Structures are given as C-alpha cells and as structure tokens.
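Hello,

Our lab assistant flagged a job as stuck in the queue for most of the afternoon. It eventually completed. Since we weren't sure the result was trustworthy after the delay, we are filing this so someone can double-check. Below is the sequence as submitted and the structure that was eventually returned. Let us know if re-running is recommended.
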Amino acid sequence: MSEKKTVLVTGASGSMGSQVLKCVMDTGKFNCVILLRKKRSNEKLREALLKKYAKIKAKIKTSGELTVLFGDLSNKADCEKVVAMSDYVLHCAAVIPPISDHNPVGAEKTNYYGAKNLIDAIKESPRANEIKYVHVGTVAEYGNRTWQHPWGRVGDPLVPSVYDFYAITKLKAERYLLEAELPNWVVLRQSGVLHDNLFKNNMSDGLMFHTCWNVPIEWATARDSGLALQHLVEYDNDGTLPAEFWQKIYNIGNGETCRVTGYETMDAGFALMGARPEQFFKPNWAAARNFHCFWYYDSDKLNDYLNFRTETWESFWKNMAKLNWYFKFGAILPKSFLSKVTIQKLFKNSNSPMFWYNNGIDGRITAFYGSRQKFEEIGTDWSKYQLFCKNQIKDEQGNLVDYQERRDIKNAKKYLLSHGYDESKDDSELDIEDMKQAAEFRGGSVVSETMEKGNLYKKITWKCHNGHEFTSSPYTIIKAGHWCPECCTPAPWNFDELSKHIPFFAQVWYDTHDESENNFFPADCYMDIIEKERELKNKKKK
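-- returned structure --
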C-alpha cells in the first residue's frame, strides 16, 4: 500500500481544477482522485489523463497514481466514496457564469449541494479529524466596488450583485462550511481568473458586458492558483505550513502587477490586435454598476504562506499572444467589422444589456445602470465618458481622482471599509463587548450575555434589526463578513432597504446607489432571461 497521501481534486475539467490537478500530480508526491460527471467529453478526458500519467509512472516509478471516477457532487454517496479515499479535499468545482446564469438549477446542485455533501461526508467520516478541506470561494460574494472604495479584504460586507445566482450559491456553501465545525478547513476566495481561453470563452455570451469599465480588479492566474494549492498540500504534508493557517479565509490574487480596472483588462486584450476598446465598444454597452471585484488589501497574506506568485500582468498577456493565433489574424482586419461579428452579435444574447434594453427587461437595466434614463445618459461618446484609470473621475469636491495614488497599497488604509469593532486588538483579546459593537454596526445586537474571550469559533446568538435570532460563530460574523442568514443573504435582493438599517452595508452600497432608491428584486428574479429565451424560442417556432 502506498504511503503517499491522496488528494481529491474536484472540478478537474475546469480552468482552475485542471491546473490544480496538474500541479499536484507533477510533484510526484501524492496520489490524486478526481470525480467527473459522466458525459462524452469527460470520458475522453479520463482516457487522456490516465494515459498521460501511466506514461509518467512507467518512467518515474515514484510518481503518484491517478484515480478517475465518474459521479456527481450532488449525489452524497459519490461524495462519501471519494472522501473516504482522501487525505486532502481540494474543492475547486463550480458551475460559474455564464453557465450558471442560464442553468441556475445546475449551479445550485454543484455549488451549494456539492459543497454541502463533501462537508457532511468529512464530518461523518471516522477520519474527520485527519481530512483537510480546502474550499474555493469567490470574489463575487463581496459585490460591486468602485473608485470610492477600491480596496477590500476578508471581513468586508457580503453584498452579492443582484441576479448573480452563482454568488449566492457560493455564499451559502461558504456559510455552511463556517458553521459545520470541521477541525481542518480553509476558504480561498478566488478573484477573477486569467486563463489562456479568457477572450475566446467570453465571446459566446453577453456576460462580458457585465464588467464595469471603472471596476478595480485584482486578477489571479489559473496557473498560479494551481501552484497555490500545490504548495498548500506540499507544505502541510512536510510540516512547514503552520497550524495557524487553518480555519481562516483568504483572498487569492496575483498582487500588485495584476491590480487594474475593467477598461485596462479589455485594453490589454485588444492591444494584442493593435487595437483599443474604443474601436470595439461604446461606453454604455458595459454595465455601470452591479458587478464585483476589487484590489485585495490582504492577498499578500496567502502568498506569504504559499509562495505561489510567478506570473505578472505583462507575462500573462505575452503568453496569451503566443498561444492564440487569432490575435494576429484580428490585427489585419478592420476593427469596425470585427466589432460587428464578435461584440455586437452578442446584443442578441439574453445576458447582454442591449438585449435587456431592447426587450424591456427593465429590472436588469435598473440593477446594472440605475434606470433606462441613466443607461441613455451614459451614451456612446467616449469623449464624454470618465475613466478612473485615466484620472478623469471627479470626487464629491470636484477634484480629479488620482488613479495611481489610489492604486498604491501604501495609501489603501484610508479607503478600507470599517468592520465595526476595534481591529487593533489581538484576536485573543476580543470579547463580548467587541461583538456588541460589531452587531450594532450591523443594525442588530448580541443576544448571548457572555462569550469565551478570544474564542472566535464557539457560537453565540445574535439578532438582526428585523428581529431574527441566529446562532453563528464570532469568526463567521466579524472576520468573514456574514450577517443574518434570513434577511441578509439573497435571494431576494433587498439591499436598498437593508442599507437603511445596516451601516455595515450602507458604507459601500451608497457608492453606487442613491439613498432614495427602493428596489426589491424577488428571489426568482434571475429567471427573467431564461423565461425571455423561452418566449422568443416559442415565437420562432410559430
């Protein structure tokens, strides 16, 4: 029997999971197990992977074994089977946008129930104290950010964007983990991922228009994210990863060089064709708000533990140019033509703002722009549009906002959000009075009369402004950013009303929303584009 520890990698057919599997297997130090859904593409993937690692095993006798099983994370029995084989569970699997936008049922099955089944399987295992669970979360849990508060960190308010059902499934899964009381867990909230098929994949859905021009983004790369999880299991296995690393949440980002804006992201891609975004887009084609991403104030913490950053913004795009031939082809074609056949064709896609505008889906126009009037006011003239990265934004006093000043992490503290308690205190000194302050900042109170000083994992009882009582650990509330599970975790989305009572939410919500707004988005609002797709399809049949 092999002495190597076994690593379960979920989502091995995806951009991040495949990199994680490659990185861990390439060490030769571990056996790996992956669980794939039974379909033709995965059958081919299974054959290719087994063939690849069998050849390696034939040459390098000490390399690890790969086991490929077919099953589904939404089936608890399948989860129990693979967990029983594993020492580490690296849960990378997720149904992400745009697929989740068009298949919310599938997203919930994988993102929430899949995670729940894995967590329950570990908790019920006789080896529960030995198995280590790594949960990949998402920056989408935080919701929209702008130039007012471009920096964020773990513990910030979790106000996921309206209609973002993917974010909700991930938010629920994360909270389930935090309250499950597993002995060995960690959450890595993944930022936007730069991968080799980034532009190619985005040309098939209107999701590409959801990225705001002025949103601050700290990108992570798929390769370095894979390396992070490789180092996690390596360092833990060889005893160099400190015990303090566990039972925490971290943000995954590639740091300083990968802190840009939505406009700069598009600009870097189109630059490979000798073009600029202005030649392909009009300003109001992209959302004005209701996205996510920011610059991670605390992403260096994870790198300090796992030492995974090898790629920079520049090196990623240089590699993209080498790998994708169509950039060279695009450089010789008229940009107006390319815009029509690649960008504007997506106006017919139900995830596109122009589709919403042309088909009277006003709920989405309100969520992403404020109103139809505001959509129209943005217009199509780039000379009248103010870009954050070009120092064209003016603050409340009429002064131009210095992009590089705000982008410098040395100045970041003054743009951070408050967490509602004295963060200068060591965690070991936090007590019930700190919890009361945090609860008050969230518009509620602490029902429990006492807590064990410094114990952030023993649950206490809280009450929100609506009178809902709930039991959660102090870590879940003050360190992770969660609050009332009944009224503050969408769906429905009711942040206009909640922000009137919860200063914790208001401090960021009013960066992009007016205090006079009273929008309410029902729990099933994300079904609107699916229903419109069916309606249009039925019309064509007739």
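-- support follow-up --
The delay was a queue issue, not a problem with the job. The result is valid. The first helix runs from residue 15 to 26. The longest strand covers residues 30-36.
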